[in-house]
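Exercise 7b. Backbone tokens:
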């Protein structure tokens, strides 16, 4: 692609990013729930004589087994003439939502009639098991590998902040690439757009074949509207891709970055050092594909790297 078709280059570092995209927020309520959920990690299952409550595991003895899966998934189409039982996690809706609701309050020894999926068979509640969360204490936090509950809480805060950071980085990339497409100026890129349209259609064709669909079926699923809407969709995506590509390669040129055999081997070495299998990596990203896509993705890598340390945690 002729990078000379980018007639005005804008540096993304000069574009203001909304403060909201640079703020990492974790609510105290979320952290409170995380700490409370620590007890569920070390929960025990105990038999109870109380009435059935949501979350209890109920075993029902039946004359003929009508359910082969302990989680309540019905894989049998015909009952078999032998005694058995079914196990239901009440309130999950895996077996039958209405039937599970009807079990609430019942006790061991009570008789029930299974729903339609159980062929209306009579049964008897033979066991009720309850999940008992462990008491959430500093000792439990130590069992999980932390000094105390405060340390565990901070660990969960960092987890949420890192997750939010990844999400916000994607948002920053989208915001800045859109702004760059609007602020940069381009020459005649119609030939490149026409080529990109055909590439887009070929990609849709590949996805359609992978899913056992025709191109028309795939288009109807993804692109609402008729012929005009489809043409607008393909052109819009193609124009974005062409402009992003020109901007990305111009950014690499500004930074003096070249994509060649040397940079390819450096990329391979970097990912191998992180634990990726070298042979598999080279198969997934051969040198020819690297040359085609590395420059196109350079702007994304630059934005992510530039903003990686510019976030600030906001105390709610």
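Sequence design result:
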């Amino acid at each position: 692609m002729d990078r000379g078709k980018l007639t005005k280059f804008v540096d993304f570092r000069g574009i203001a990013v909304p403060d909201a995209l640079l703020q990492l927020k974790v609510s105290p309520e979320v952290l409170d729930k995380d700490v409370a959920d620590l007890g569920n990690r070390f929960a025990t299952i105990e038999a109870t004589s109380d009435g059935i409550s949501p979350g209890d595991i109920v075993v029902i003895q039946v004359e003929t087994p009508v359910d082969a899966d302990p989680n309540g998934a019905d894989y049998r189409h015909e009952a078999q003439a032998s005694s058995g039982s079914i196990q239901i996690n009440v309130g999950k809706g895996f077996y039958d939502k209405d039937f599970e609701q009807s079990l609430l309050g019942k006790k061991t020894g009570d008789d029930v009639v299974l729903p339609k999926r159980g062929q209306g068979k009579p049964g008897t509640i033979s066991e009720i098991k309850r999940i008992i969360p462990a008491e959430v204490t500093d000792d439990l936090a130590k069992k999980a590998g932390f000094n105390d509950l405060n340390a565990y809480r901070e660990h969960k805060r960092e987890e949420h902040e890192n997750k939010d950071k990844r999400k916000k980085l994607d948002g920053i990339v989208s915001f800045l690439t859109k702004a760059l497409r609007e602020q940069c100026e381009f020459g005649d890129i119609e030939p490149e757009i026409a080529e990109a349209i055909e590439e887009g259609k070929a990609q849709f064709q590949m996805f359609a074949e992978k899913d056992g669909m025709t191109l028309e079926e795939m288009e109807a699923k993804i692109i609402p509207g008729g012929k005009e809407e489809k043409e607008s969709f393909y052109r819009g995506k193609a124009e974005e891709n062409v402009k992003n590509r020109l901007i990305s390669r111009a950014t690499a040129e500004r930074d003096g970055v070249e994509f060649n055999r040397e940079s390819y081997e450096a990329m391979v070495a970097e990912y191998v050092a992180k634990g990726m299998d070298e042979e598999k990596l080279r198969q997934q990203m051969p040198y020819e594909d690297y040359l085609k896509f590395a420059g196109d993705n350079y702007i994304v890598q630059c934005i992510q790297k530039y903003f990686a340390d510019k976030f600030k945690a906001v105390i709610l």
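Instructor comment: The two ends are 48 Å apart (CA to CA). The chain has a mean pLDDT of 89.
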